Amino acid sequence: MYGIVFSRVDKVSQGVWDLFNNEGALKFRSRIGDYEIYDLRGHVAFYALNKDIVYLDEIEDLALRLEERPVEFVFVSRHEMRNPRPMFTTHVTGNWGAAELGGKPNTISLANPHTITAFYRELCKIKSEYGLDDFECHVEATHHGPTIKSVPVTFVEQGSSEREWSISKGWELLHYVINEFLDGKLVSNYEPAISIGDLHYLTIDNRLISGEADIGHAIPKYVKPVTEDMIIKAVNMMTHRPIKAYVSWKAIDSEERKVVTEVLNRLGVKLIKRT
């Protein structure tokens, strides 16, 4: 059973929620605090009534109170950026340092690289069928809340400004791919990997599209310094242990290179240098 998470105060999340609701797929089960719990085609939907989606850390405890616990969470969310452009994104949550946008500081969530990358590939593949050719697709670095350590987390987002959040064709696309996921059709099983030193929007698109890897955690270029603790967390907080790490070699300094090389070797993760 999967858990799909929505927030009433998120325009994209609410738009996708309305599509499920209007087709009669949601069956009310209970209310716990500020959440309504629904059956969603044999899975469970969490509907946050008053909180933005990045601040829903209590979802983990809430799930533990259910008779049947979700094995994975998918959060439906808007995407926001300083210089907005149309895009769909997927990623796992967590904070490499301070918790500036939800979650816990210095703590990352459990990542399922196969789910993150399967959503990414499918969004890239079918967006033109919805007339959304101008939308980019990206896997993002690990960032923001909520922090969930016992159940894998994938954020699926539409952005990146009020204009794009309001595009109903985008909601329809997200509705479709989530249904594929619930039906067990959205699967991938390529080699799990992590990324170190890349941009916030990862630049290994061709490697992911071709099936060279499924990406989980990504420590971005702006996180300094890259530490042993971060690398160990990135490797361990994955549902499938990474076989390799894509390292943007020029983005890290000589001391970081020594740390990255030593830790990855010790952990048995192949280092792939990107220049």
Name its key features.
275 residues, four-stranded parallel sheet, 8 helices, globular
Low-confidence stretches: none
Number of strands: 14
Total helical segments: 8
> How much of the polypeptide forms β-strand, as a percent range?
25-35%
Overall CATH architecture of the largest domain = 3-Layer(aba) Sandwich
What does the radius of gyration come to?
A: 18 Å
Structure in a nutshell:
This protein is 29% helix and 29% strand. The protein is an alpha/beta fold. The longest helix is centred in the middle third of the chain and has 15 residues, at 168-182.
Question: What does this 3D model show about the protein?
Answer:
The structure is a single chain. The chain has 275 residues and is an alpha/beta fold. It has two domains: 181 residues, 3-Layer(aba) Sandwich (Aminopeptidase), CATH 3.40.630; 83 residues, AF0625-like (Rossmann fold), CATH 3.40.50.10700. It is built from eight helices and 14 strands. The strands form three sheets. Strands 2-3-4-1-5-10-6-9 form an eight-stranded mixed beta sheet. Strands 12-11-13-14 form a four-stranded parallel beta sheet. Strands 7-8 form a two-stranded antiparallel sheet. Helix 1 packs across helix 5. The longest helix has 15 residues. The termini are far apart.
